[in-house]
Structures
1.
Amino acid sequence: MNFWLVKQEPSAYSWEQFVQDKGTYWNGVRNYQARNNLQAMKKGDLVLFYHSVVGKEIMGIAKVTRESYPDPTAEEGNWVVVDLKPAKAFNKTVTLEEIKNNSKLKDIALIKQSRLSVMPLKATEFKILLQMGDTPYSGV
C-alpha cells in the first residue's frame, strides 16, 4: 500500500462536499509531476485530503477505488484522474503550521514542494499525521 496527499481549495471542492458525494474522480491536475503521482496510485492506496489556500489543514482520509484513466475534463494532453472515496474524517484537523512545527515531518513534500497538488507520503509520515489528527485508522 502507498500513501498520498491531495490538495484542494475548499471553495472549489471541500471535504464536506466530497463526503456528501460519497466519492469523485480527482480531475483538473495539469502538472506533470502530480499527473505521474496520480498514475502511480493503486486501488486501495490511502490518500489524505488537504484543504489548501483557506484553512490549510488535513481534513480526512480517502481511498483510491479506481486507478488512473483519461481525465474527461482535459481538452488536450495526456492527463489522468483516479477515483477516490472518503474513508474517515480526521477527529482533529491537522494544520500546515502544526506540520511545519513537527521535526519528524521536515522533509514532507507538503513543505518541500508546496505548489504540488498530488504528492506521495512515506508510511511513517502518514502514521505521524494520523496521530496528530487523533485519528486511529485500521485500514493502514
Note: The first strand starts at residue 3 and ends at 8.
2.
Amino acid sequence: MNKLLKHVLLIAALAIPVYSANAADIGISAQDTQALIQKNENVLFLDVRDPIEIMFIGFTDAVDINIPYLMVDRSQWDDKKKRFRLYQNPDFIAQVKAALTAKGLGDDATIITMCRSGSERGLPSAEFLKKNGFKNARYVVHGFQGDSLKEGEKSGFRIKNGWQNEGLLWGAKPNPEKIYRTDR
C-alpha cells in the first residue's frame, strides 16, 4: 500500500504545472499596475506581445511601449504546438534600455511586462530582465486578456480576469507610436 501511495503521489506531482519559485514575488495585478501608472511612479510598462497579436486582441494605451519578448517566425511551423515557431527577440534588452532612457528612467526603475495571459511571455520576460540586471522587473499576473473559463457555456473564452476584463481602458486598435514597428 505504501508503494502504491508513493506512486500515486508521484503521478499527481508530475501533473502539477511548474512555475518559477519567484512568480508570486514578481507578479502584480492589472489593477495595481494601473495604480502605479496613475501615481506616475518610477515605472516602465511594456506590452511584450508580438504586434500581430495586439492587432487582433486589443491594446491599452496605458503601456509605454510594445517590445516583443517572443516573436513569431512565420516561416517555421511548430507541429507539436500547432502554431508558428516563437523565438526570443535578440534585441529585447537593448530595446528595454532604450525605452528606459527615452522615459528618463534608470535601470532601477520598476519594469512591468504584460503579455496575453501572463504565463508564456509575461513571467519569462520579467525573469529574463531580472537575470540581466533589472532588479525591479515584474509582470501582470493574468496579462492583457486573462484566463479562459474551464467550464460552462463560455468555456474556452478568455473572460475571467486580466487587463481587458477588469474594467481598465483598452481598445481594438494599437497606438502607432507605441506599437513595435520595423518600418522606422
Note: The beta strands are 27-28, 43-47, 65-66, 70-78, 83-88, 110-114, 137-140.
